[in-house]
Amino acid sequence: MQQCTLYVSIQDRESVTDAIRKAFSEKTVEVSTDDRAVTVSSKKWFSKSTITFNTLREDLDPEAFDQMKRGMYGYFSQIETPHVRVQQKLLMQITALNVAVGIVSSDGIDKETFQKILEIARSVHGIVFLPTGEMLDKEGKLILDTAGESELEDFILTVSVDLIDGHIHPTPSGEARKQRSMQLLREQGIPVIDHLPVIVGDEDAVIRTKDEIVQRAIALCLIAVYSGGIAENGNVEEEREFIEGIIEQYGAEGFFTEKERAFLYNDAPDRTDTIQMVWMYECYWVLLWALGYVETLDFPSDICDVQSAIDCLRLAENYDAFYQNATVRSKTEILDQADLIYRYDWACVDARINNRPVAGGLNDEVVLERHRALNWLVRYMDADWDDVQMDT
After folding, report:
1. Which of 40, 123, 126, 206 has its CA 20 to 30 A from that of 137?
2. Matching Pfam families, A to Z (predicted)?
3. Does this model's pTM top 0.70?
């Protein structure tokens, strides 16, 4: 292998050069005057070997970088894989990249050199793309290849703080909410970190409209009922016929996202996709709370009351009744829960990274889906449902 590429989402872009210097401290390291190229060299008998690191930065080359990201996103999005969750997170990671480092070795990248490249990747939390089409994490484990294979059960996103939170203007309400949340987590025995940023404050937040929340809640309920039926009896045709009648009853045909419609009309849905759609009950439960149908969002240790969730919609019998009986909670209430779940999710991710049990009895799957729904409610990064990110 002569070359590979390191991709990074990082705030301090100069730290990539620092990591190269550190990894190759025993060799000669030269940086170009424009800081876009780093050459590592070592002399041998009558020859000189070099490793070059050529950097493409989003802030300096926005058009070229955007084209590169679009190409990579398209490449990995079309791969058929049973590791759907890993694939989705890799695609999210790709959208957040802001530095690409092309690495070329004159003598080829041997095992020792590759370990140094991984050392750099670990230092800057990068991912490494090989000419064979494999994307590796910072430990050298396979995230995804062209055959849809992966060595990971989950993939942890690493996103530059300025990309995640640059659009958030810190406010007194946001800071006060953060402090209240952290105090509650401490009381519950949940780890916290002071430098996890604030979320959007009351002054700037725009919550989804009642129409949006009602329609999304109905779609999530129906997709969860449908996928649950398939998971239980495996009869796609029978379950589709059943759910189509309910879709008509609530006038919900236009409420589904592109991914949801693709799932609904897939004659042989993937098992992993089916199970993921069953988890939409947890997202639906959050929206029921936001609409006043659920009194409180309890500590996220257990799955929601599925039957009660279904009954909220079933007993309404039609869209108008479900809509009229709903009262959207205040912006403050919704932001309070959004901030809490943000910090709960960080604790879950931290436990997973460090290979230890999640503290306090948190259910990391419940936390993740609540985070998805609450981020959608507060218009986090103004993303549509299919593209909602749960950054920590």
Report:
1. 40
2. DUF4272 (PF14094)
3. no
